[in-house]
């Protein structure tokens, strides 16, 4: 048998053996009496006659490790948020809030921080609105807790789908499809598109047909599900909705999944169970691994922990659309916009329904066909209703939308004609011509909206690293 040894792997192992230790692992393993070396930033500095106490953070966790340095070894350039390298022996200590510290034997200032114009001051808590004005610097603040939670939540979602035998598909970001048919899409054009007057559309210059930034990868997932059975993506999406509110983003992340061989009421039930299991798995995964960061975020909203834990312990609510409308009508004095049978729900209606159902996530099902997307499958018992779902979350509103897909070729062809989409989505009809007439179902989860629920954050721009809006386009 041939044996192959990778020299690169050997180099990686050698490098990792002499690499610095991250602070999160120091707190987890607590290797007392071992000699360690670490790199990070100064978060606080307390100078005394004999010793200088330095709080060092490297971004791996919310906690800083106290480094004790003999004052005669303190570099003159050592200051708030300067970067440093230090090595020494870890020992136990009796300081409040910390049971270990590093007794430094060596310390080097890698780089000083110019504090004259630095927007964040030591031991000063900045508001989210203020921090948001410095997007390129907020990773140095307590916003780092959100970034670690977000990273773990993404990992949890990938782990869930992998464990359930889903195949990850990279759906395109440039597309000729307006999935929802709502027109809230960004056109893609080159800088030279408008230089010459032409009878043709300027948006058709590069690809010879209109191209947009994607709103959803669902249709492309449907193209793959007929051969792979279970598929998902985790991609950016773009919506040209002209709103600058704390609930809207132009660029956001979507988790979308499509599963084959789901049909009728039993298939629809399987779909709701799939969504609920994904949410609960992801939430528990993050709580198990980022507890300190989660608790920091929960301090900003005391009720969030109770709501999140209830979502783990209780089964999600299930509410038919018609029943939801009756509940809302009976309490219409609470709303600015009155609920109307046959119309979509507003956010104030969604929030009321979650409270009415016990402050837990609620599936609204059995939607009227006329207010749902063209691809929704009509119910067998009542063709005026579709196998569709909206999952509403407390304090957030709709986070997940989905349903079973129309698998009848003629019915889908007629619906595309009704929406003037037959020409642009003729390929979509092929999926019904050549897929063996299997049915499928799927859903899309707004990742930032899920994080709003998990963390209790008030502004959706505070759960994404670089939100883009008209007041801040620096990054």
Provide a concise account of the structure shown.
The chain has 13 helices and 15 strands. The protein is an alpha+beta fold and 475 residues long.
What does this protein structure show overall?
This protein is an alpha+beta fold and 475 residues long. It contains 13 helices and 15 strands. The strands form 3 sheets. An 8-stranded mixed β-sheet has the order 6-9-10-15-14-13-12-11, sandwiched between helices. The chain has a 5-stranded mixed beta barrel with strand order 1-2-3-5-4. β1 and β2 form a beta hairpin. α4 packs across α7.
Fold blueprint:
Elements: H1 7-18, H2 23-29, E1 35-47, E2 51-57, E3 65-70, E4 83-92, E5 100-111, H3 128-131, H4 144-163, E6 167-168, E7 174-175, E8 212-213, H5 218-228, E9 230-238, E10 251-260, H6 264-289, H7 291-298, H8 304-313, E11 317-320, H9 321-330, H10 347-356, E12 362-368, E13 385-393, E14 397-404, H11 409-418, H12 426-433, E15 440-446, H13 447-455
Parallel strand pairs: 3-5, 6-9, 11-12
Antiparallel strand pairs: 1-2, 1-4, 2-3, 4-5, 7-8, 9-10, 10-15, 12-13, 13-14, 14-15
Helix pairs in contact: 4-6, 4-7
Gyration radius (Cα, Å) is 27 Å
Q: Low-confidence segments, ≥5 residues, pLDDT <50?
A: 11-18
How many β strands by DSSP? 15
What is the helix/strand order?
HHEEEEEHHEEEHEEHHHEHHEEEHHEH
Helix count from the secondary structure assignment? 13
| Shape type | elongated
Q: Biggest β-sheet: count, sense, barrel?
A: 8 strands, mixed
Helix content: 25-40%
**Cα-to-Cα separation, first versus last residue:** 53 Å
Beta content:
15-25%
